[in-house]
Amino acid sequence: MGLYNYTIYELHEMLIKKETSSEELTRSIFQRIQKVDPYIRAYLTLAEEAALKSAKKIDKLLAAGDRVPPLAGIPMGLKDNICTSGIRTTCSSKMLENFIPPYNATVAGRLIENGAVLLGKLNMDEFAMGSSTENSRFFPTRNPWDLERVPGGSSGGSVAAVAAGEAIFTLGSDTGGSIRQPASFCGVVGMKPTYGRVSRYGLIAYASSLDQIGPITKDVTDCALVLNSIAGHDPLDSTSVDRDVPDYSSALVPEIKGLKIGIPQELFPEGMEKQVEELVRKAIEKLEEMGAVCEEVSLPHTPYALPAYYLVAPAEASSNLARYDGVRYGFRDKDAEDVVTMFMKTRSEGFGEEVKRRIMLGTYALSSGYYEAYYLKALKVRTLIRQDFDLVFKNYDVLVSPASPTVPFKFGEKSEDPLSMYKSDLCTIPINMAGLPAISVPCGFSEGLPVGLQFVGKPFDEETILRAAFAYEQNSGFHRPEPSLEVN
Amino acid sequence: MNFEAVIGLEVHAELKTKSKIFCSCTTRFGGEPNTHICPVCLGLPGSLPVINRRAIEYAIKAALALNCKIAPHSKFDRKNYYYPDLPKNYQISQYDLPLALDGYLEIELNGKTKRVRITRLHLEEDAGKLIHGGASISRADYSLVDYNRTGVPLIEIVSEPDMNSPEEARAYLDQLKAILQYTEVSDCKMQEGSLRCDANVSIRPRGSAELGTKTELKNMNSFKALQKALEYEIERQTEVLEENGTIIQETRTWDEREGVTLPLRSKEEAHDYRYFPEPDLVPLSIDRKRVEEIRAGLPELPQARKKRLIEDFKLPEYDAKVLTLSKHMAEYFDSCVKETGDAKLVSNWLMGDFSRLLNSRGMEVEDSPVPPKEMAFLLKLIKTNKISGKIGKKVLEEMFETGKGAQTIIRDKGMEQISDEKTLIPIIEKVLEVNAKTVEDYRKGKERALGFLVGQVMKKTKGKANPELVNKLLKDRL
Ligand SMILES: [Zn+2]
Predict the structure, then answer these.
(1) Which CATH entry fits the domain spanning A3-262+394-475: 3.30.420.140, 3.40.980.10, 3.40.50.300, 3.90.1300.10?
(2) Shortest Cα–Cα distance, B46 to chain A (Å)
(3) How big is the A-B interface in CB pairs under 8 Å?
(4) Is the pLDDT of residue A135 over 90?
(5) Where are the domains of chain A?
(6) What is the pLDDT, as a whole number, of residue A467?
(7) Are B373 and B339 in contact (CB under 8 A)?
(8) Of A238, A318, A371, which is closest to B50 when you measure between CB atoms?
(9) Which residues contact B79 (CB under 8 A, 6 or more apart)?
């Protein structure tokens, strides 16, 4: 077993007991990356020199017998839409291929302050738009469980890296399922916190009212540890909420007797794979066995979540991405003779197909004469979706559903058909529309491919979904599955 | 046909908060290009705006002084359009729920008071500045952008179309500027761009209630330009209608050099701003109690001050108006009166030479190189006949030129008034001797001859002789 197989809390123990050092750990992860990344292709940028420097700093503290935070000395990776000072942050776009931010995202800063060692930046769908990481302008990332299949997206690099042992933990971002769907595809734990729980400052925006950063880890215990250090109010993000951050680790009690679990039938969508449904139903039985009370519930407006999402998110994106015009930073078409042509050529070449599709969708939805029929209506649907959840949460503590209607698909299988690709997020999008916290944990395999179980919680009640997910994980027999990645 | 104009104004004023509206960069005017910037006002990927509470307070203060109602709930929206001086290619502004609504201000013209209604007042961020290496953005070889001004807080004040002449529009802008200065929310310097004004103008047959097709006028860089542009545009529209033409609804730009308004290319104005709520900011909730605190703290406004000048110093209405339109002028006036105790003298000098010298330098009162104390000192010298008014003018000019005090200038140049009889008598006697013919004329009853003799004495003393004393001494000897 290599050092890359361990979790954060195990490695923390080993570091304290001097059974290993952060430098040794970091070097071993880079070796692992060197070995498997040519196949997986999770990383866009590596920061080996800086990583070893920070690792040595932690080792000095450890040698001095100082108490260090749980993340100190632990190698991590960040999705490439999270700004890192002095390290290229591309959003997997030609537009930002050479963009080096002069500042750290708040989450990056917090993790670094906690001693986490940044290995590098991870591949994604361009500007977080996609569900397979095939929309990266550089290269697709492969699923460690089957190299012919996608890792999911848009945080495909972040999940594949954790699954393949190329980082102990990573951060992703989730706008419509971009952490949970790939976590499900790669058999790891991925959480989207409540909107406003984690600062978005320094997260390159896709859809501001939906985007949220979250941890991707090997198990629920690690998830709580990472959440502990990134959650909380940030004066630089007005939408981050100023309320106390509990100690999420102390929520991890493997006890769910009497927990009221709702099973929303609408989150088991038509066209979902039979095997996936069976595994999820089996997991629900397991939860009942453990003493939870599981009942069918209904969220009648969630079928409208997907179309509403594809109005709200592109509308915000069309405005958020307007700044990439070649004037100040990033890619610029150098041949244009006037400013309007420069704008057009820069954006035509700098953005990929899916990004352009969504910019056009969003521009259209906001245009005068269409605003009321599209954007405004979508906002109303969003309110109705939120009310559905509010109502159900009056009687239930947690909701459970699949995290994705399918197992990982093959490359090219859906990339020519945007609508079928969009449906990959049917189980996750309603949760973003309502701003709720949710987590995906492995719940078994369908023909050797991982399937994820989603727990959804009340606003700012990450503790309860962590507890439910932890209890399930400890009793399910699917704790920390590892792909038999045979590469040489 | 007899037409009447219908005018509404849209005024943008920069708030003089220390820092910008969504980041902590300084709002100071000037500075090397692109030195007052940060990731937020530059719109770098991942940066987020955070509202400057002080900007909201300033805007509320302005709104209250303009008799507006403060909305308990308002929000920010994005106004989307592409322009290189706009780093995010959208401007954070307020669309359907502005900070304040339904106000008015009163203008006075030819002794009549008129109320101009204010539709709304909202907060937004300013854009940067483009410097073109050529005639315009479309024809330049290159363009440079300075983002120092980007993100400076602005209030936009939209009036109802309640004005019917360029003079009324000018009076509205004068009064608005005065109120914003008195409340200390804006410097309102048009030449630095901290006050900007667009106008909507249409004409209709006098007496008609229907509104004609309006045009929007932009690019008026001074109060005078506003008035001239409106005059031109009203005349243009009148000509069009008199020749049975139709007014096209369009945006026109004021060409200062040619003195005409010209249509902007329709492509540049065909905007669909695609407003939608700004998701990076939470909606604004304004605390009633705070609003009342701000209202209670409002300073004396220009009209009240004017009334006070008329009552306390018996100044003519016109003088009182001119002296109170600028808060700095009113304060300057007050301190000079306090020192000299002669309001009429102070008023005459401030409205006369002092204003002339400021205007010729394109300066505002607050930039005056002569502080009120020095001005008062000079006026005291005149009042006590230490120097003549004529010398006083010269001294004041010198004070503007060099920044030196009156005393220093008078001493250095030997400008002190000669009120000493022993010095004057020999000079006077010499003048009488040389001008025997004139003396004869005077004695024959030609009053004007005295003036000539006084002039001769003044010439001999380089204007320094005390004219009253010269008069007296001459008369004694005639
Ligand atoms: Zn700034």
Answers:
(1) 3.90.1300.10
(2) 4
(3) 99
(4) yes
(5) 3-262+394-475
(6) 98
(7) yes
(8) A238
(9) B90, B91, B92, B93, B95, B124, B273, B275
Chain B, nearest residue to A81 by Cα: B46
Contacts B89 to A, Cβ<8 Å: 322-323, 325
Q: What is the pLDDT of residues A448-479, one digit of tens each?
A: 999 999 999 999 999 999 999 999 999 999 99
> Are the Cβ atoms of B84 and A339 closer than 8 angstroms?
yes
Distance CA A181, CA A439 (A): 10
The helix/strand count (H/E) of chain A reads as: 15, 11
Residue for token pair 């592109």: A314
The single-letter DSSP state of residue B266 is H
A154 preceded by a cis bond (ω within 30 of 0) = yes
Q: Which residues of A are catalytic?
A: 79, 154, 178
Q: Where do the structural domains in chain B lie, given as residue ranges? A: 8-199+274-293, 300-413, 421-477
Q: Write the residue in A238, A315, A328 that is nearest to B280 by C-beta.
A: A238
Q: b/e per residue, A147-169, with b = 16+ CB within 10 A?
A: eebbbbbbbbbbbbbbbbbbbbb
Q: Which tokens in the block code for residue A130? A: 């996609």
pTM: 0.90
Residues A342, A348, A353, CA angle at the centre, nearest 5°? 165
Q: Which two tokens stand for residue B116?
A: 């101009």
HSE on the CB side for B319, CA within 13 Å? 19
Interface residue A286 vs chain B (CB under 8 A): no
Minimal Cα–Cα distance from A239 to chain B, Å?
6
Q: Which residues surround ligand 1, an ion (CB under 5 A)?
A: B 23, 25, 38, 40-41
Question: Regarding the domain delimited by B421-477, which CATH topology (the fold level of the hierarchy) does it fall under?
Answer: Arc Repressor Mutant, subunit A (1.10.10)
The answer to whether residue B140 scores a pLDDT higher than 80 is no
Angle at A241 between CA A237 and CA A246, to 5 degrees: 125
pLDDT digits (tens, 9 = 90+) for A359-412: 999 999 999 889 999 999 999 999 999 999 999 999 999 999 999 999 999 999
What's residue A236's pLDDT?
A: 98
Do residues B456 and B431 make contact, with C-beta atoms less than 8 angstroms apart?
yes
Q: Is A467 exposed, middle or buried (0-12, 13-18, 19+ CB in 10 A)?
A: buried
Q: Do B282 and A200 touch (CB under 8 A)?
A: no
ipTM over 0.85: yes
User: From the list B88, B137, B143, which residue is nearest A323 (CB)?
Assistant: B88
Cβ(A130)–Cβ(A314) under 8 Å?
Answer: no
Is the predicted pLDDT of residue B395 greater than 90, yes or no?
no
A424 and B CB contact within 8 Å = no
B48/A200 touch (CB, cutoff 8 Å), yes or no: yes
Residue A325 touches partner B, C-beta closer than 8 Å: yes
